[in-house]
Amino acid sequence: MARREPNDPRKAVPNTSNSGVPSPPVDFDIYQDLARLQEMIFDSFHIPLTRWTIIDEGQISEQIDLIYETVPPAVQKALAILQEEQEIITKAEEYAQQVLRSAQQRAAQILDESGIIQQAERQAAQIRQRVQQECESLQQQTLDEIEQMRHSTLQEVQQLRQKTQAECHEIQKGADDYAEAVLEHLDRELGEMLQVIRNGRQQVRSKPTSSKNLPGERP
Length: 219
Prior knowledge:
Elements (H helix, E strand, L loop, with lengths): L12 E4 L5 E5 L2 H14 L2 E2 L6 E2 L2 H54 L3 H93 L13
Antiparallel strand pairs: 1-2, 3-4
Helix pairs in contact: 1-2, 2-3
Keywords: Coiled coil
Protein name: ATP synthase F0 subunit B
């Protein structure tokens, strides 16, 4: 069986939020566990002249269970990134509020007309509404991406486990068939050997017994 080099998806990829601030790179340990599972399969004993490989079901099951345990920490990392993005958004909102307050104070100092003040208030309300909408949209988008990532990871792990179990079943069946063929051949050879032995004994029994010469008698 040709050995394939496992892909290395563990390289950190920077993620950029809608606010323009790059998020910390995400490095999921699950990729390392998947690569280890692939390595365990390739390092298993290969039956010569066949496409079958004998693997340790216990080790494979333990590795798959380890992958299942790795998925929740990966989601926690993603949630931590979401929390950091939310803090950045909150700081941006506070800065926007400070800008709005400064603008309102400056407008009150320069202009004393009610129409201009009302216009400034409307603009401030519009800015607040727009910022709130952008924050909610970013938060929902991040949650959707996290849920999609979690679902995709669990689905890939389940498919890999089913594939591994199917391969184990095929390998076991191949080993059983091979053992059956060897035992059948051995049984046939032993039967032939027993028949030869029986024939030899029968020939020995069928030969006449030669009389021995008594003392003093001529042969």
